[in-house]
Amino acid sequence: MNKLEKATASGRSDVMRIGYALLFMVGIILYIGTHIEGIDGGFILVVAAVVGGYMAMNIGANDVANNVGPAVGSKALTLTGAIIIAAIFEAAGAIVAGGDVVSTISKGIINPEAIGDADTFIWLMLAALLAGALWLNLATYVGAPVSTTHSIVGGVLGAGIAAGGFGIANWDKMGAIAASWVISPVLGGLIAAGFLYLIKRTITYKQDMRSAAKKMVPVLIMIMAWAFSTYLALKGVKKIIKLDFVSAALIGLAIAIATYFIVKAAVGRSADRLDNDKAGVNKLFTIPLIFAAALLSFAHGANDVANAVGPLAAINDAILNHGVSTKASIPLWVMVIGALGISLGLALFGPKLIKTVGSEITELDQTRAFSIAMAAAITVIIASQLGLPVSSTHIAVGGVFGVGFLREYLKSSHARMMEEIKSHHQGADQEEVEQFLASFENATIEEKGAMLKQLKKKTASAELSKKERKQLKKAYKQELVKRSAVYKIAAAWIITVPASGTLAAILFFVIRGVMV
Length: 516
Description:
Layout: H1 2-33, H2 42-62, H3 65-73, H4 79-97, E1 101-103, H5 118-142, H6 148-164, H7 171-204, H8 209-236, H9 245-272, H10 278-283, H11 286-321, E2 327-329, H12 332-360, H13 366-386, H14 392-424, H15 430-442, H16 445-458, H17 466-475, H18 483-515
Antiparallel strand pairs: 1-2
Helix pairs in contact: 1-2, 1-12, 2-5, 2-11, 2-12, 3-4, 3-12, 3-13, 4-11, 4-12, 5-6, 5-11, 5-18, 6-18, 7-8, 7-13, 7-14, 8-9, 8-11, 8-13, 11-12, 11-13, 13-14
């Protein structure tokens, strides 16, 4: 009986999650059903609301993992704690700062004037919303974090082409979105790797890590306060108040300076109680990471809830006004469906993607997770000022790749240095070799460089040939980034727009066939 209980436990858990999701959608049907009396096309609105709720749950299951995954992977937050924080701040961001009006044609990728009538527009948006949701569901099932924005963009494009032909599409915009497949992960990866290397050079590579941490951690938290304050001012509350970059940056700078003086003494006291090692330094980044997860979730809720409720708001507007408009107001009930759906999807189905981002690509600690969070905020700020299209999902996952590949490079470089030292000591006494290696390990970066130069001068004859160096590099290359995860995620990113577009085109013809 015990064996049977264990064997069926996973299945019961899956059934319960699906049951709660269905209960949420039944709740939407009951609520909307009582408010559609006298509305022509009320049945379509009920269907659209259910699909919107389904889309919101899939955003919560897939996209939100990028905000909290690194914090969970580094053990700064438990999985339960991360889900609670993300659910609260995602919902708060959606309801408080989600905005009253949304663009009906996301990213301007199709021309609304080319759409013949309100009915065609409604079918188009419904097909796009359902296609985006189904693609996100599939991506979550296989454990691939993909861009919600790209999913809905692909859906609108595919359904738009099905409704109005290839001429309806804005191909310049699509080219910019395709460029973000490369720009987002590369920028995120470089910035995350840069921050991690800065932390290593200024703190963890020092002999007295505690003293170094007392000086640098408040500075790093100050930079984080500036980045997140500016990020929230530009993106998180842009639908409440619009600020230009200079104003947002100045507000962020004022908050950052205040933060520096507040945390400096607290960091000093905490550092005195910690061990003089990497584990001790990592603990200093735990609280900043919790704040980062919360702030990223708030900004994500404010920005990306439109991906779930935008098409639903557009359908609602088209049904009520019997026409196609470029802007649509977002009723409170639409925003609540988006906020609740994202929170519920995260709680029910989010853990799988949180684990993928947090631990299955590469091993994360608090300093690595901090670097990824910094990359997420700074990349969006840089990209928005340069007019570059970026995806928050691609930035966060690119940041994970960046810190993982930097670790690979540093580990293999260290292993090659150790082997070179041994090769230069050929024929020497074993005790002498071990003594040199011990001194080398305890030396600072500058001292290590000087020791290697001095060693090479003394034993020029032992210099390794190019072929030997190549063999050494191959032998000591440690793969700290899971290659299968890299290939799977990259493939999912590339096919997101074509897959959701094709699915949306098929669904559009099905919906039109049923309705006509």
